[in-house]
Design a protein that fits this description.
This protein has 391 residues and is of the alpha/beta class. Helices cover 33% and strands 15% of the residues. It has 14 helices and 12 strands. The chain has helices at 2-8, 12-15, 46-49, 90-99, 114-127, 149-163, 213-226, 239-248, 267-275, 307-316, 320-330, 342-349, 358-365, 376-379, and strands at 20-29, 35-44, 66-68, 74-76, 80-81, 104-106, 137-142, 170-173, 232-235, 255-259, 279-283, 334-336. Strands 5-6-7-8-9-10-11-12 form an 8-stranded parallel β-sheet. β3 (66-68) and β4 form a beta hairpin. The longest helix is centred in the middle third of the chain and has 15 residues, at 149-163. The protein starts with a helix and ends in a 12-residue tail after the last helix.
């Protein structure tokens, strides 16, 4: 079958160079009084990197494919996005994902389900002792209300406690938007509006607190120094913000996470980040699907319905969604699709061992229309005014 031929063709092309940077973990006490992990680079022979796991929970061979970050860390190219996954579904879904071979989990304080993600991680590691914490890649994000230097560490520690982890593989500044601090005991996660319970609806708005990105970043760097996080990066930054950060950062951002799909390819930003050794992760790689339930788009809208995507799917024995994910990976980005359906976990991870042709890639590239679904210039209007960070 097409699928069998596809799997048979996944060989040396996946492995890359003859020797690839991997990670070993030095254990040392942190200021939390516990053990944390820091990075030292080692060299791993390609035959070891290419070895396929065996056993009842052997993952799709593609999960071994990783992006090598500027720090030497190896981040799985495909991750499970956890935005908008209901709390009651999260533990079982995360446990199932890990069992099926997913090794990259994308989380955030603002998603409100990190405690449940942590429960799923613990359940998976308990069920299968052959999987360790070090096999997983866990990303989280600093929320807008914690940008002041004195709040960054506490926000990170709260995330670690909720996840039940000793360190994060990657910690990102969620938005280049700084809002007034909200104490944990007042509300967590704090979300966008400063006081949603205000008696006067006019007071149910965002309250901005202008914090320089450089101040926030210094505190992020200290998290790396302390061993609480291995890599730091940013989300939703444009070229100007990224350029400014790179000019002043002591610890350079390793990852830029942005909305990216065929309707919003952001080619110039992706190419610029790559030229600066900043890896790009695409959120919402399937485009409009995640925004229909929020009323931000229509079910019939989206690149997944385009004729060239459907034609490529038919040619490769794949689904249109798999074609969109394959496109994201082939253009050099990682991707973090979200699903609440356990069955989709198998579908979304089955995007390795086959490639789109140059013509298929070009046809999908041509779909770009600079269509952004997740834009605070629009969704913040009802919360006190637009925040046009992309203009």
């Amino acid at each position: 079958t097409v699928r069998e031929l596809r799997a048979m063709s996944a060989t040396a092309a996946r492995i890359g160079p003859q020797l690839t940077n991997s990670l070993a973990l030095d254990r040392r006490p942190s200021r939390r009084g516990k053990t944390s992990a820091t990075i030292r680079a080692v060299m791993t022979p390609p035959d070891k990197l290419g070895a396929k796991p065996t056993g009842h929970n052997a993952p799709n061979p593609g999960v071994a494919e990783r992006a090598i970050l500027r720090t030497g860390s190896r981040m799985p190219l495909l991750g499970l996005g956890t935005w908008k996954i209901p709390k009651e579904q999260t533990p079982a879904l995360v446990e199932t994902a890990i069992r099926k071979g997913w090794r990259h989990l994308d989380c955030a304080c603002d998603y409100g389900n990190e405690r449940e993600v942590g429960a799923g991680i613990r359940a998976a590691l308990t069920e299968d002792p052959t999987i360790s914490r070090d096999d997983l890649w866990v990303t989280s994000k600093l929320w807008n209300t914690y940008h002041r230097q004195e709040h960054v560490r506490d926000a990170c520690l709260r995330t670690l406690d909720d996840l039940g982890l000793e360190y994060l593989d990657l910690y990102l500044v969620h938005f280049p938007i700084s809002l007034k601090f909200v104490p944990f005991e007042t509300r967590y996660p704090p979300e966008w509006v400063h006081d949603p319970d205000a008696s006067d609806p006019a007071d149910r708005v965002m309250v901005h607190d202008p914090v320089p990105i450089a101040e926030t970043w210094r505190a992020m760097e200290q998290l790396v120094d302390e061993g609480l996080v291995k890599n730091i990066g940013v989300c939703n930054f444009n070229v100007s913000l990224l350029t400014d950060l790179l000019a002043t950062a002591r610890v350079k951002p390793a990852v830029l996470q942005i909305e990216s799909h065929p309707y919003l390819s952001q080619k110039h930003l992706v190419d610029y980040a790559r030229s600066k050794q900043v890896h790009v992760t695409a959120f919402s790689p399937l485009g409009s699907a995640g925004y229909v339930e929020m009323g931000w788009t229509k079910p019939t809208e989206g690149a997944i319905n385009e004729a060239c995507v459907k034609a490529a799917a038919a040619a490769h024995g794949a689904t249109p969604g798999q074609v969109l994910l394959r496109w994201a990976l082939q253009r050099g980005t990682s991707a973090i699709p979200k699903t609440t359906k356990a069955g989709r976990l198998d579908e979304n991870i089955d995007v390795f061992g086959w490639t789109l042709s140059a013509d298929e890639m070009s046809a999908i590239d041509a779909l770009n229309r600079n269509k952004r679904y997740n834009d605070p210039a629009e969704f913040c209007v009802g919360m006190g005014g637009p925040v046009p960070i992309y203009d």
